[in-house]
Design brief:
The protein is α+β, with helices and mostly antiparallel strands and about 190 residues long. The chain folds into two domains: about 1-70, no CATH class; about 75-135. It has seven helices and six strands. Strands 3-2-1-4 form a four-stranded mixed beta sheet. A two-stranded antiparallel sheet has the order 5-6. A hairpin with a 4-residue loop joins strand 2 (about 20) and strand 3. The longest helix is centred in the middle third of the chain and has 52 residues, at about 90-140. About 0% of the residues are buried. Mean pLDDT is about 75; it is low at about 185-188.
Length: about 190
Amino acid sequence: MNAAKQAAVVQIKKYGNRRLYDTAGSCYVNLDDIAALIRQGQQVQIVDAKTGQDLTRVTLTQIITEDAKDKPTGLPLELLRQLIIASDEVQQEFVMWYLKSAFDSYQKVQDAVRNRLGEVQSAILSPVETMQRFLSAATSAQPRAGAEPELVALRQRVAELEARLKKPGQGARQGKIVGNKRRSRAKR
């Protein structure tokens, strides 16, 4: 539906009293309404109601200037001066080509940033999801048969070793433990 919506050009007629009439919507519109249509991705064409002359470029320029009145930003003054200076056709074509290239590049960068942000978000969520699956699998898994006796034996062994460490001097009198066998210092 969106492709069909963009394919149809909304024709707007401009009358002598500066009123704009949307022929597709059968209603009068203002510059803000036209700007909203364009932001939604609609193609618009503004024509003079009497002569049929295309006024799209002039009307879109008017929308930009009206929009710039309310904001401190807008087109830089030097650019506006250069547009006025570039009165001959060759200079105007170059300036328009340059601006179009700049906007196309800007759009490509914006798209690339959006794609990379999506990839980063996926990369961030992927380990979190993996850990959630791991933790849910660990809590739902039954303990291995025979794992508990091993744990008890390990605890006993640790307790024995701690007890030996607490007895002062016992290790020095009886010798060093090498592997499972004891060697006396005197035999060395």
